[in-house]
Amino acid sequence: MSARNGPPGVEAVRRAFRSPLRGTWLTSVLGLALLVTLPLVIVTGLLDFIAYGPRFGQAFPLHVSWMRLPLFDWPTRPPWLFRLTQGLHVGLGIVLVPVVLAKLWSVMPKLFVWPPARSVAQVLERLSLLLLVGGILFEIATGLLDIQYAYLFGFDFYTAHYFGAWVFIGAFLAHVALKLPTVVSTLRRRPPVPDDLVAERPGPSTMSRRAALALIGGGSLLLAVLTFGQTIDGPLRRTALLLPRGRNPGNGPNGFQVNRSAAAAGIQPAETGSAWQLTLTGGGRTVLLDRPALLAMAQHTARLPIACVEGWSTMQTWTGVRLADLAALAGVPDPGSAHVTSLERGGLFRQATLQANQVADRDSLLALRVNGADLSADHGFPARVIVPALPGVHCTKWVATIDFRTGTDG
């Protein structure tokens, strides 16, 4: 076995890569496209982690050690902020799948170069590539399975996706530092760089490299058409054929998406009937309010979106009592936070802690009605929280208690 040819079969496999499309130019163009777009996917993903309120212990994973992000109060304005960040994170992640696969295809012959590394620097480069490729494929696979509600992992999605993201981010930064000069030189062609991706004996050409880029772009455009409708109200929602929550689930005032139905949450009709009462605490007092008492209070109407981690969102018109009014009634006119619990007895998101600015916002409501009708059971009857720019899972349904706190601890 010669050092040049490597193990048996390696040379034969390497020679089998005969596409005339491969070359440093195509790889550089695809790399540049990912260099521009992947940071947006990364940043929106990290912002969405902060939106869940990690300082209240309600963003997963709970313990991130030195990978802790700089925390700040997630804003309530613009009210569509989480809808934008989560929609971009999921939608753009899906749209980039053809580009990522094409980029991996373009450099596949390098997997069969022998010897695989001739120096310590090359060993480190190969290791970074292993983490880069493994990281992005892991993030794509787990992300796609999550938005399809296909929980086949055998591990916690949130924890694995978060730590997997940091593995990818580190490898991505290292790869950019190593390869950006080559990309710039190739695209400028000053001077031309050696092209070790071109096949030794290329096969007949079936399309140009620019046509290949158009094909890849067309695939991404098709995925965009079949994806982004889930974040847009109106006719385009019907085009979200790839996503389980993308299309319109029904008609009428309550005919919009739900992540978790009343039946799935184990909510019994007797719990939400005439005997239901909302318990407010804080300021050394306890206030009990039934639904007629809440309806007798000053009502406020706001048109606000609900956006979910799976990428879908919907804009609806909500009517109810301002959370700030309930805080004043509980004896805490200027709360530092509010802890909301649901009648739901299980699940990760049966409770949520709201920041001071989220309680105080003029459009933050304990909603009793939607689009002019009473909430349906699946949408949280008899009362649910709705807050501008808040992740949908923290807009707690079937609210049982709200504890207004003077401090910010969760």
Automatic annotation (TrEMBL):
Alphabetized GO MF terms: oxidoreductase activity
Domain of life: Bacteria
SUPFAM superfamilies in UniProt: Oxidoreductase molybdopterin-binding domain
TM annotation in the entry: 24-47, 87-106, 127-151, 163-180, 211-229
Keyword Transmembrane helix recorded: yes
Residue span, Oxidoreductase molybdopterin-binding domain: 272-406
Pfam families given in the database record: Oxidored_molyb
Keywords: Membrane, Transmembrane, Transmembrane helix
Protein name: DMSO/TMAO reductase YedYZ molybdopterin-dependent catalytic subunit
Annotated source species: Asanoa ferruginea
Species classification: Bacteria, Bacillati, Actinomycetota, Actinomycetes, Micromonosporales
